[in-house]
Design a protein that fits this description.
- There is one protein chain.
- This protein is of the alpha/beta class and 371 residues long.
- It folds into two domains: 250 residues, TIM Barrel (Alpha-Beta Barrel); 71 residues, Roll (Urease, subunit C, domain 1).
- The strands form four sheets. A six-stranded mixed β-sheet has the order 8-11-12-13-14-17.
- Helix 8 links the parallel strand 13 and strand 14.
- The radius of gyration is 23 Å and the shape is globular.
Length: 371
C-alpha cells in the first residue's frame, strides 16, 4: 500500500486502497465467488453499498456486477442482469483489496521454524522465495492466505527474511490459487537485503560481525557481478571469432546479482537505525540501483529530507509510532509523507496478522496527501 507510485513503477502500483471499515461478509463472498466452486455462468450483484474505487470514484449507492468471478460492471446506475443473484449491501462500504507491501505469508510462523532464511551463507541472492511458499500457508495456521483474504488483503509482496545480508528474490502474489505459480503476479519483484548486525553469523565468528562487514558483503556481491558480466561479454566476443570457445562457469549467485547491476529489478533493504538507512542510500548511489525501498526504517524521520531527495521509498510497519530522542511520539508514515517521502504500509506477516493492515490503512487515510 502506498502513495503516488509503486515500489516498481512499471510493474505494480502499491497504491493505498483505504476506507473507514470493510464489510467482511462481502469480502468473504468475493473470495467464494472468485473460487473454482462458483458456477461458470453465475452472475452476482452487490447493490446499495457505498463503493470507493482505486481511481478515486465514490459511489454513494453503487452496484457491482460480477460475472464468472470477475467484476463486469460497476457504478451508480448499473443495469442488473435478469438472471443475477442480488445481494443487498446497503449500509456497507466496499473498497478494492488491500496490498501488503512486505509479508512472509506461507513461510511458517514467526518465532518458529520458517522457510524464509537460509542461514548457511550470509549472501544468497540466488534464492527464490517462490520455492519456499506453501500456497495454503504453513502450520500452525494452515489457512493464512484465506484468512488474509477474509480481512480484505488480496495481494502481498512476499519476501525472504532478514537473517542474511542478501536474502534472495521477492515475489508479488495474489492471495488465491492452488499453486504458487497460479498466485504469482510478478517474479522477481526485487532483491531483498538486510543491513545491521547479524548475530547468527557473529556468534559463529563468521563475517559479518560488524555493520561495516555487512555493507562490505553487499559491495563485494555487486563487484563480483560486474566481473562476471565482463567475463560473459568477453566470451561473446571470443565466440564470434572462435565458435569452440568455452563460456565461463555458470554462477547462480552472480547471475542473480546481475539483475540488480543491470537495473532489471529494484532493491528492498531491511533497516532500522539512521546509520543503516544512510548505508543503504550510499549503496544505492554507488551501484545505481533501479529503485531503493526501505523496510521498517524506524529512524527514517531523522533523515526524511535526504530520503525524499534521493527518491527512496519507505515501507512503514508493523510499528507505526516511534519515539524521538526527546521521547516524543512520531507518527512515522504521517511525518514522512509530509516531508515528501513515498510511503507504503506493511504488516510483516506472520509477525503481525493481516487485520492490522486494515487498521493501518484506516488511520493513515486521514493523513493529507494519501490517496
Amino acid at each position: 500500500m502506498g502513495r503516488k507510485y509503486g515500489l516498481e513503477k512499471s510493474s505494480i502500483r502499491l497504491s493505498i486502497l483505504t476506507a473507514a471499515f470493510l464489510c467482511l461478509a462481502l469480502i468473504a463472498q468475493f473470495v467464494l465467488f472468485a473460487s473454482p466452486l462458483a458456477a461458470a455462468d453465475e452472475i452476482i450483484v452487490l447493490s446499495g453499498a457505498r463503493i470507493l474505487t482505486a481511481t478515486g470514484q465514490d459511489f454513494i449507492k453503487g452496484t457491482i456486477v460480477i460475472k464468472n468471478g470477475r467484476i463486469f460492471d460497476l457504478g451508480q446506475n448499473v443495469q442488473i442482469p435478469a438472471r443475477a443473484k442480488v445481494i443487498d449491501a446497503s449500509g456497507c462500504l466496499i473498497t478494492p483489496g488491500l496490498i501488503d507491501a512486505h509479508s512472509h505469508l506461507g513461510l511458517g510462523p514467526s518465532g518458529g521454524v520458517t522457510e524464509d532464511n537460509e542461514m548457511t551463507d550470509p549472501v544468497t541472492p540466488q534464492l527464490r522465495i517462490i520455492d519456499s511458499i506453501h500456497p495454503e500457508g504453513v502450520g500452525p495456521d494452515r489457512h493464512q492466505f484465506l484468512n488474509a483474504l477474509a480481512e480484505g488483503v488480496t495481494a502481498a509482496v512476499v519476501r525472504p527474511g532478514s537473517g542474511n545480508v542478501i536474502g534472495g528474490q521477492s515475489a508479488v502474489l495474489k492471495l488465491r490459487g492452488k499453486t504458487v505459480d497460479q498466485m504469482c503476479l510478478l517474479f522477481p519483484a526485487d532483491m531483498k537485503m538486510a543491513l545491521g548486525h547479524k548475530a547468527a553469523y557473529a556468534q559463529k565468528g563468521q563475517m559479518p560481525m560488524t555493520k561495516m562487514g555487512t555493507a562490505y558483503l553487499v559491495r563485494q556481491g555487486m563487484l563480483e557481478a560486474e566481473e562476471y558480466k565482463k567475463a560473459l561479454e568477453a566470451y561473446e566476443r571470443e565466440r564470434k571469432k572462435n565458435p569452440a570457445a568455452l563460456p565461463p562457469a555458470r554462477d547462480l549467485k552472480k547471475e542473480a546479482m546481475l539483475l540488480v547491476l543491470d537495473q532489471k529489478i529494484p532493491v528492498h533493504i531491511h533497516v532500522n537505525s539512521v546509520d543503516d538507512i544512510m548505508i543503504a542510500v550510499r549503496l544505492a548511489g554507488e551501484f545505481k540501483f533501479k529503485k531503493l525501498s526501505l523496510a521498517h526504517a524506524e529512524e527514517a524521520y531523522k533523515v526524511a529530507e535526504e530520503l525524499a531527495q534521493s527518491e527512496v521509498a519507505v515501507v512503514v510497519g508493523p510499528r507505526m509510532i516511534v519515539y524521538d530522542d526527546q521521547n516524543r511520539l512520531v507518527n512515522l508514515a504521517d511525518y514522512l509523507v509530509k516531508k515528501g517521502v513515498f510511503v507504503c504500509l506493511m504488516t510483516d506477516a506472520d509477525v503481525v496478522q493481516q487485520p492490522f493492515l486494515r487498521t493501518q490503512a484506516a488511520i493513515d487515510s486521514k493523513i493529507p496527501g494519501w490517496d
